[in-house]
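Quick one: structure for this chain?
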Amino acid sequence: MSIKTRRLLFYSSIILFLLLGSFLVLNSRGYHLDWRTLQFEATGGIYLSSTPAKVTITLEEKSIKNQTGLFQRGTLIDNLAPDTYPVQVQLEGYSLWQKEIPVKSGAVSVFDAIVLVPDEEALPTASMAARAMVAAGRHLALETGGGVSLNGTTVLGHEIITLTESGSLLTRSTATGNYYLANAFETDENLNLTLTFNNLKRDILGLPGAIDIKKILPYPYSDRRFVVSTERAIYLLDTERLTIEQIALGTSDFYIQGSNGVAWMEESTIRLFNLPLRTNNLAVDLGVIDPDEVGKIQNTSKGWLILDGSGRLLLFSGNREPEVLAKAVVDFSLAPNGEYVAMESVSGPMLIYGFTEESTAQVELPSSIQEFAWFKDSAHLLVLSGGKLIFTEVSEALSLNQVTLGIEVYAFSYAPGSNSVQFSTPQGIFLKKIII
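Got it. Here's what it folds into:
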């Protein structure tokens, strides 16, 4: 072999070593060679975490080892070339979760709130049908043609206003307009809140004359104290100490905020009253918005959400001009984690706005929305649509996973933080477990 040939082989080996070494190093650092363009690009991954945890995972019909264990929750599928991958998460006896997941270069697509719903039949809890129902803690209030019942016992009133976890039920009579307070442990003792309010208003505040209550709700932390509004004022009512206090004049509506606040519109501003500290502060100036055109307000960590009369959902943050999050909105609800807001739209689909992403996603439903509520994980919604009670995930990724929990449903109630939901059908009241 000539010197020239040996040199050629030597230098060729060095070049091959450098190329192969570079390829291995780049591959070990998460780079993939795209043979179409002959260029290296960063690989991506998919992270999956589910309830239940011990599930079977397949990617492109290939089994993936579930990495969930004592010291790790969830499974990371890494070193994937940028593309779209069909993924399935399944467990016998549970609903199937499947999605076409896009993987981007150098990023991980995270799905850390997958819920597989058990295939168990809903458990019947009562034989009567209810047109409205509210569950809280271990207590259940039903609104039927015969009136209102609390844990199976009939109480005064025809409409359910609210039910607390301690078992205090607030109702209203459609015949007289009076409000009543019942307790799950003393259902035969019903307090006439309207009469109590008017007597204390006369005796303590010196304001004679019976007036109608427009709205009444319990404190967030006490079901013996209430915020009450009439056509012209807002009051604080304590049914235990039998005291009353007027906190606002010239306004007729209010909104409970968080665990200790109550807000109301005053001219073109929002006032926020701290119930424990008893302080009244200016929260935000709404500028030219007519207070009579405000349908709902909600304080968030990002600012104030305002639903105006034209159906616009506005976000007031600091001194900036309000941001229009959506139009043609009927109602909205803030997620438990405060990071998302669900909006019922006139056009049909549910709109989900994420404050962190500053983007809006759609949740398609079979019909118009009758009721909706956030599930405790802030990643799913319970929606009553066209008589179907649907458990749907909330995600910007397409092909949303939805599970029908009940059909011919009149109404449902979800107690915040619960693993189950109760609903009413012509056959009676049923309880459906979402997480076992």
